[in-house]
Amino acid sequence: MYSDEKKHELGKKVASLLLDAEAVKINADEAFSWSSGWKSPIYCDNRITLSFPDTRIYIKEALSSMINTYYPKVEAIAGVATAGIPQGALVADKLGLPFIYVRSSPKGHGMENLIEGKISPGQKVVVLEDLVSTGGSSLKAATALQSEGFEVLGMASIFTYGFPIADDNFRKAGIDLIYLSNYDHILGEALGRDYINTSQMERLQSWRLSPETWK
Asked: How far is 178 from 154, CA to CA, in rounded Å?
């Protein structure tokens, strides 16, 4: 398992890469609107990292190494549509494993599949996400895989906001989450680069405690 020091250094490195690629945007004074209706001072779109070869390779190799360490018995990688699909395919290729992906809802024609790829009941899978907020869509995908007979070893993501509600949701579902970087790493790197000041840092930290009511 990774030491706390290794986790911290990895988190800082990935946070730096996300900021360099402008995959993370921070505005402590003017909120972004999420599809959930939440108002947020931060917006993260890790799909942008796919356009930067060096960053894409680093993230692929970091995720692959972490999955090998924490889930050495993994037999397949399952991406969560849509952003988890390219990341999952890259990791599966690096690890030499089968790849499948889970749709947000069944396809409306043909076989009406919810899971795309070879379904092998009993197969041990790790679910791959680009980021985790509340964990709702991620855990929905994990439940879909379990209902088809897969054994979900855990979930891996590039980034997590670290919301208390997400921690509760994963704990209740009995599914572990590993990740490369988190909200604290992003804020630390942003402060170090003078992207934000200490006053803005306080507002950004308060948002994470109660994002559904933050204004």
From this structure: 8
The tokens describing 4, both together, are 């706390």
Picking from 158, 171, 190, the residue whose alpha carbon sits closest to that of residue 61 is 158
3-state SS class at 139? helix
- Nearest to 18, CA basis, from 144, 157, 125, 116: 157
> Is it true that the peptide bond before 198 is cis, omega within 30 degrees of 0?
no
Measured distance CA(24)–CA(15) in Å, rounded: 9
Site of tokens 């306080």: 202
With 70 as the cut, is the pLDDT of residue 52 above it? Answer: yes
State the Cα–Cα distance between residues 19 and 6, nearest whole angstrom.
20
- In the structure, what pLDDT confidence band is assigned to residue 136 with cuts at 50, 70 and 90? confident
Q: Are strands 115-116 and 99-102 parallel, antiparallel or unpaired?
A: antiparallel
CA-CA distances (angstroms) from residue 116 to 78, 81, 132, 163?
A: 9, 10, 22, 30
Tokens matching residue 136: 């709702």
Task: pLDDT band for 179, please (50, 70, 90 cuts).
Answer: very high
- Close Cβ partners of 45 (under 8 Å, ≥ 6 residues apart): 23
Full DSSP string of 54-90: HHHHHHHHHHHHHHHHH-TT--EEEEETTTHHHHHHH
90 within 8 A of 42, measured Cβ to Cβ: no
